Amino acid sequence: MSKYLLWTWQHAKGIRLNSLVRIFVGIVRVALGLLMVWLCKRFIDVSIRSGSSQDILLMIGWLIGTVVSIIILRQAYYYMTVSANARQLNAIRLKLYGQLFSRQLFDEQYLHSGDITSRMSKDIETVSDLTTSTFPQMVVTFIQLLGAFLFMRSMDERLAWALLILTPFAVVFGKLISRRLRQMTHDIREDESRIQMQIQEGMEQNAVLRALSSEAWMVGRLDETQQRLKGNMLRRARFTVAMRFVFGCVFSLGYIMAFIWGGLQLRNGVITIGVLTSFLQLVSQIQNPILTLINMVPQIIHATASIDRLEELEQNQGHGSFGSFEQNQRQVHHAHTGEPVGLLADDICFQYATGDRLVLNHFTHDFRPGTKTALMGPTGIGKTTIFRLMLALTTPQHGKLTIYDKLSLRIPIDENTRDYFSFVPQGNTLMSGTIRYNLQIAKPDATDSELLDVLHTAVADFVADLPEGIDTELGERGSGLSEGQAQRIAIARGLLRPGPILLLDEISASLDEQTERQLYTRLFDRYPQKTMIFITHRPSVSELCNDVLRF
C-alpha cells in the first residue's frame, strides 16, 4: 500500500493546498453537525420545557443558522472538489501524454494504442477521484467518527464503546476482500481495454472490413468481449453487494441496540427525551462514517488497480526528454552549421524480439554528406528498420550510428539527434484538423510564406484552390482529400523540419508518373545540400540517386 500512497502524493502536487482547505472545511462542517446535536438536545430538554418565548426564538435562530452554514460549507466543499478533480485529471493526463513520446517503441512491452487510450481515460478518472475526493473525504469522515464517539462517550461510555467494537471487524474483513476485489477490477479494466482496441481498429480499417464482408464477424467478436466484461462486472457487483449486506445487517443491529438501550434508559428515568434524540443522532454519526469508510474500500482497491496500469505507461521510458518547442528549436539551430551532414552506420545488428531473426546483420554503410541514396529490396528486409534506428525510435543490439560532417562534427545517434532529420513516412499520416494544423505539427511557428513554399515543393499547390486554402478543415486521416493529395501534404509537413538529413519512405507511392517526376525535380533543386535517403521500389527514383543499396 505504501507505493500507492507515494504515487498519489507525487501526482497530487497541484491540489495539495486545495485538499487541505477542503479538509478544514469538512472539519468545520463536522463541528457544526455535532453542535446541531447539542442544540437539538438543549431545545427539547431546556427551551421547550422551561425556556421563555425569547429563549425558544433564539434557539430556533441557532438551529436555522447552523443548518444553513452546513449547507453552505457542503456546497463549497463540492465546488472545490470539482475544481481539484478537473485540475488533477488534466495534470495526470498531460504528464502521461508527454511521457508516451519517450516510451521505448517496437519492443516486447509494446502496448496497443486502444489499451493506452483506455488507460488514459478510465484509469486516470479512477485515480483522480481517489486523490481529489476519496482521500480528503476519508480524513473528514474519520474526524467525524472520532468527534461523534467522544460526544457519545461523554453521555454514555458503555454505548459508545459498544458501537465502536464493530470497527476491528470491519478492518479485518476489508483486508480479506481487498486482494480478490483488486483482481476483479483488473480483469474488468483489461476487458475495457480490449473493447477500446476492437472499436478503434474497426473504425481505422472500416473500408477494408467492408470489402472483406467481415462486418458481422467483427460485431460478433465485440459482443463476445462485451459479454465477458458484463460477466466480470456482475461478478464484482455480486461480491460487493454481499459485502455491503453483511455490514448493513451488522450496523442496523447496532442502531437497533442503541434505540432499545435508549428506550430502556428513558423508561427508567435515567435519561431525557432530548438525550434519547441525541443518542440516535450520534449513533448515526458514528455508524455512517464507518459505513462510508467501508464503502471507500472498493474505491481504493479499484484505484490501486488503475495505478498499476498507469505505472506501466511510465515504465520502459527512453533516455530522451520531452522538451519545449523553443528548446527543440535551439537544438535544431545548433545542429545547422550550413555544412552538409552525413551518417555512418557501423556494423549494425538488430532484432525486434529475443529469438527472432536478425533483421540487420552487421550492416555497414556511409551515407556521405549531401548524397542521395536509395534503399531497395523486398518488404520486411529491414529498410524501415534502418529509418527507425536513425530516428532513435529503437536501438541496435550491436554497432553504432554516427552523424558527422567534413569538419569536426561527430555525434552518436540518440533521442537528442532527431533534430538532424526530416522524416516523411509512407502512406496517409494526416490528422483531423486544418491543413495548417497538420503542417504546424512539424514547425508550430511556421509563417504562411514557409507553408506555401513547402507545399509548392511537394507539388501540393492545389491547396490554394481549396475553399479555405491552408485553413481548410480535414476529417480523420485527411478525409476530404485523395490519397495522392494527402501524401503530398504529408511530404510538405516533413520538409518543414530544418534537419540536414531527409528520410523519405515511399513518398511517391500514390502519385502518378508526371507528378512524381515533378516532385523529385523540385525536391532536388530546392535542397541540393541535404543528405537524402529514400526507401523505394521504383527504378525511376533510384536512377536519380548517387548510391543504391539493394537488400
Estimate the global geometry from the Cα principal axes: elongated
Radius of gyration: 34 Å
Backbone structural class = alpha/beta
Helix fraction bin: 55-70%
| Termini Cα gap | 53 Å
Order of helices and strands: HHHHHHHHHHEEEHEEEEHHEHEHEHE
Which tags fit this structure?
alpha/beta, 551 residues
Explain what this protein looks like in three dimensions:
The chain has 551 residues and is an alpha/beta fold. The chain has helices spanning 2-10, 16-50, 53-100, 113-155, 157-164, 166-204, 206-211, 215-267, 273-314, 325-335, 383-390, 435-440, 448-457, 483-496, 513-526, 539-542; strands at 342-350, 360-367, 372-376, 398-404, 410-412, 421-424, 433-434, 473-474, 501-505, 531-535, 547-550. The strands form three sheets. A five-stranded parallel β-sheet has the order 6-9-10-3-11, sandwiched between helices. Strands 2-1-4-5 form a four-stranded antiparallel β-sheet, covered by helices on one side. The protein has a two-stranded antiparallel ribbon with strand order 7-8. A hairpin with a 5-residue loop joins strand 4 (398-404) and strand 5. The longest helix has 53 residues, at 215-267. The radius of gyration is 34 Å and the shape is elongated. The chain starts with a helix and ends with a strand.
